[in-house]
Amino acid sequence: MNSSPDLLKELRIDRKAATPPPSRRGLWIRLSIAAVVLLVLGIGAWAVFGREKPIEVKTAPVVAMASGDASSASVLDATGYVVARRMATVSAKITGKVREVLIEEGQRVEAGQVMATLDPIDADAQRSLSRAQYGAAQSQVTGVQARLKQAEADAARLSKLVSQQLVSRSQYDEAIAARDALRAELLTAQRNAKVAADGLRIADIGVDNTVVRAPFAGVVTAKAAQPGEIVSPLSAGGGFTRTGIGTIVDMDSLEVEVDVGEAFIGRVQPKMPVQATLNAYPDWKIPAEVIAVIPTADRGKATVKVRIALKSRDPRIVPEMGVNVSFLEPAKPQQQATQQPQGVRVPAAAIAQRDGQDVAFVVGEEDRVEQRSLKTGATLGNDRLVLSGLQGGDNVVLDPPAELKDGGKVKLAEDAAE
C-alpha cells in the first residue's frame, strides 16, 4: 500500500515532457488563406494596371444612298434664303386702345383664333344707341299701323253711307285722303325701321371689330403691341400708334428664293430637281424642286430670281434662313428604270489605310470596333460612296488613329467630355 508521499508524487505534472507535434490540418488552412489573399491582390493589380485603356474617338453614322444620290450631278450651285409665301402682319380694322394681347412669339394659332381685343366702350355705346333707334322706329311703325287700320275702317263705312247719300261726298273724300296719307306714312316708318336695323347691324360689326382674329393658321413670329397702346390700320398719331398686333407665318408655305446669274439662268428649268442645304444644318440634304423662274432680271445685280419648293416639312426650317442649293441634272428615264441606288454614303474621314487596303472601323457592342475591308466608289463632296463592307445604320470611327486595331475598345469623345 502506497504511502501519502508516494501518492503526491504520482499527482505531480512533469514539465519536461515533450510537446505533441502540430496538426497538418492547420498548416493547410493557413496555406490556403495565403493563396486566396495573393489571388485577390493579383486580380486587383490587374484591374488597376493591366486593364485595356479605351481610345477616345469621334463617330458618324453610315447613310444609305437615296434615289438620285449617285445618278444626278450638280449643274449649278447658288445661295438664297427661306421665305414664306403666306405671311401677314395682323392689325385691327379700327383705331382703338389695346385691352388684351393673347399671343406670344412661337405660338401656333388657328384660323379665326382671337389674337387680341381692343377697348369696346365706344363700340358698345354706339350699339346701344343704334338699338334704341331701332326700337323707336319699330314703335313708330306700330303706331302708324294702328291709325291706318282706323282710317281704313272709316273709309269703308263712309263708302257705304255716301252711296246711300247719308253723308256728303267731301267727307268721304277726306276719309280716303287720310287713309292714303297714313299708308304713305307707314311706308316711310317701315323704311326708317329698316335703316335703323341696318344701323344696328353696323354697330354690331363695330363691336366685332374690337376683336382681332388670325386670318389663317400659322406660327406667331413677332408680337408688336402691348395692352394700353393705341393701334390703328393707318399710321395715325405718328410713332405713338402701332399699326399691327403681331406677325404670323404659314409654315406650310415656306420655300426658297435664290438669285441666279444671268449667264447661268439657261441651266435652270421648271420642275428641275434641287438639293438644298441649310447653313444651320450643313449635313442635312433636303430634296427640293424648281417651282418657277421669275421672268424678270435685277439690273443692278444681273441676276434672275428662282423659286424652289421644299419637299420636306420640318420645324427646323424657319423663314430667313440661309440656304445653299445645287441644281441637279435630271436622271434619264432608262437609267431610272435600270439603275438602282447602290452602296452607302460614308464620311471620307472614316476611311483609313491598313496594309494598302481601304478599311473602316465599326463600333459594336461594349464599344469595341470591328475592322472591315471596303470597296469604295465615287467621291461625293466630303463623303465617299462605299459599294461593299458597310451598310446603312453602322456607326464608324472618324479619323481612326494608327494604334486602333480590330477588336480594340473605344470611348466616344462626347462621353469623355461628360
UniProtKB/TrEMBL annotation:
Predominant location: other
Sorted UniProt keywords: Coiled coil, Membrane, Transmembrane, Transmembrane helix, Transport
Record bears the keyword Metal-binding: no
Keyword Ribonucleoprotein: no
Domain of life: Bacteria
Coiled coil: 141-192
The protein's name: Efflux RND transporter periplasmic adaptor subunit
Source species taxonomy: Bacteria, Pseudomonadati, Pseudomonadota, Gammaproteobacteria, Lysobacterales
